[in-house]
Specification:
By secondary structure, the protein is α/β, with parallel strands linked by helices. The protein has two domains: 179 residues, Ribosomal Protein S5, domain 2; 246 residues, Rossmann fold, CATH 3.40.50. The strands form five sheets. The chain has a five-stranded parallel β-sheet. Strands 1-2-4-3 form a four-stranded mixed β-sheet. A three-stranded parallel β-sheet has the order 5-8-9, with helices on both faces. The chain is 37% helix and 16% strand. It is elongated and about 85 Å long. Helix 8 runs parallel beside helix 18.
């Protein structure tokens, strides 16, 4: 007899439907799994057999029968242990040990030898697949219930063992409904750095404000200990919270990556990722076999902070070009091509030279000309052209370090940034792209929303014609000027808005 139950596989960041077919026939004892399964699935034969025996069922190895499990589609590589539960249930159906209707039901879960269910990664992606298919029931381990139940249209059947699921399928037991309160699932505040902690550096704080309001890329340069890292770490304290749709998007990324907290599986704060400068290209942009999201995808809708920017390998830095421009990264393999979202704000920090004291009035630079040239050569023109604001962070004097601390500066600035984001949301509402910000405007939108007067136009003409501003740089200046105008609640872009955007855009090479 044959049977079929439904499961799913994670391909990239999305779940794809998998059919677990079972055929049981009389013959020599044999238990085979086909369908391009990896080693973990091959080993599931032993886990399933032991779990079935522990749950009081007849395992396939103890009967004179031939069992064939097919995971379809057969040309798609299956990985992981989440197929244990659907394999066990399809066998029970085919061997007529249980009877239930498998239609419109999705099963995922790893089985322990005693028949209990262990948690899996990607529960939210499986719930999204159920919603897309219009299916009404998702069966999964109890530890994954709160995460999957974020989508209220799906009935979540969470169980701690195979026996519980079978009793429910045979209408012998009704599991408790899983309806978590999102407020209880929110991550605990981590105490972000407040801008009030940072003394002086008014120009850097202003650049931080503009970057946060329009999601612009930012570059800090200055001597060691000037406050570059602290400024970057203060950025999350002024960023607006994620919308529910953005939270689901970010939570799914962390769920598939196995980085989601079991206790609080809902992310409503913008990610802040800070990889070490020794990170490989695959670690930063994603890759591996199978391809997994990298740091730029984990920073989606948040901040990617790259400290010691020139210390990263050049090929790693150059790989940032496409995602900075397109908001996504495409990873190609011989059999398939995956695209991971990567709409992040890049914040980079660098010393002016290897020793860190080039052009310092107090300390002498010990670097040779060739060392400085090699250090700065790692930052190519095309890469730096994709950064909107360049800020010099100088060393502070004692008087600045000991001045009284301002209270609530991050909170006040956050309110102003949220208001600027609301202005952008209203402006782009007709575009039907929720969450669109000024830095993500395309050419038609720039032409429509970034009109400047003749005086500002002449100023821009001067810098473009002199070669100090590329075509890409010209459009990025307009986007930044639009953000500055939004912070001032100005409908039109004024001359001083363009002047300020140019001041932050033009990077000094001296």
């Amino acid at each position: 007899m044959s049977s079929k139950v439904f499961s799913a596989a994670i391909i990239g960041l999305d779940a794809q439907l998998i059919e677990a077919e079972a055929e049981v026939s009389y013959g020599l004892r044999r238990f085979s799994i086909v369908g391009l399964a990896d080693k973990a699935i091959e080993e599931s034969k032993e886990r399933v057999a032991s779990a079935l025996k522990s749950a009081g069922f007849r395992p396939p190895q103890g009967q004179p029968q031939r069992v064939l499990i097919n995971l379809a589609p057969a040309n798609l590589k299956k990985e992981g242990s989440l197929y244990d539960l659907p394999i066990a249930l399809s066998y029970l159906l085919a061997s007529e040990q249980v009877k239930f209707n498998p239609n419109n039901k999705l099963f995922v879960g790893e089985l322990a030898l005693d028949g209990s269910l262990r948690p899996i990664a990607g529960a939210l992606a499986f719930a999204l697949l159920c919603k897309e298919k219009g299916w009404n029931e998702l069966f999964l381990p109890r530890e994954n219930a709160a995460e999957a139940a974020l989508l209220k249209d799906i009935k979540i059947i969470a169980a701690s063992s195979l026996s519980e699921i079978v009793r429910y399928l045979e209408n012998k037991e009704e599991p408790a409904a899983v309806e978590p309160e999102i407020e209880k699932l929110l991550p605990l505040p981590e105490g972000p750095v407040d801008l009030a902690w940072i003394k002086g550096q008014q120009m850097a704080k202003r650049a931080l404000e503009i970057a946060a309001a329009g999601n612009h890329n930012l570059f800090f340069e200055g001597p060691p200990g000037a406050g570059k890292t602290l400024l970057a770490k203060a950025l999350p304290s002024v960023l607006p919270p994620l919308s529910f749709e953005e939270s689901i998007e970010v939570t799914k990324i962390y769920s598939v990556s196995g980085l989601l907290s079991r206790e609080r599986p809902f992310i409503n704060t913008r990610p802040f990722r800070s990889p070490h400068h020794t990170a490989s290209e695959a670690a930063l942009i994603g890759g591996g076999s199978p391809p997994r999201p990298g740091e730029i995808t984990l920073a989606h809708r948040g901040v990617l902070f790259l400290d010691e920017f020139p210390e990263f390998h050049r090929d790693v830095l150059e790989s940032l070009r496409q995602p900075l421009e397109e908001g996504a990264i495409a990873i190609s393999r011989s059999r398939h091509r995956l695209s991971f979202p990567a709409k992040f704000m890049l914040v980079a920090a660098s010393n002016p030279c290897p020793c860190g004291y080039r052009n310092s009035p107090e300390q002498q630079c010990t670097c040779t000309f060739s060392q400085v040239a090699g250090y700065r050569k790692k930052l190519s023109g095309p890469l730096m052209d994709r950064i909107d604001l360049f800020v010099n962070v100088p060393q502070l004097k004692y008087e600045k370090l000991t001045e009284p601390e301002l209270e609530g500066s991050s909170a006040k600035l956050k309110e102003k940034i949220i208001q600027a984001r609301k202005v952008q949301g209203q402006r782009f509402s007709e575009e039907k792209k929720p969450g669109l910000v000024n830095a993500e405007m395309n050419m038609p939108q720039i032409k429509k929303y970034c009109q400047v007067d003749s005086k500002a136009g002449e100023l821009l003409r001067k810098y473009v014609d002199s070669g100090r501003l590329s075509a890409r740089g010209y459009h990025r200046v307009l986007k930044t000027a639009r953000t500055i105008a939004d912070l001032e609640a100005s409908e039109n872009i004024r001359f001083d808005n363009v002047s300020e955007a140019l001041m932050y855009r033009l990077r000094s090479e001296h």
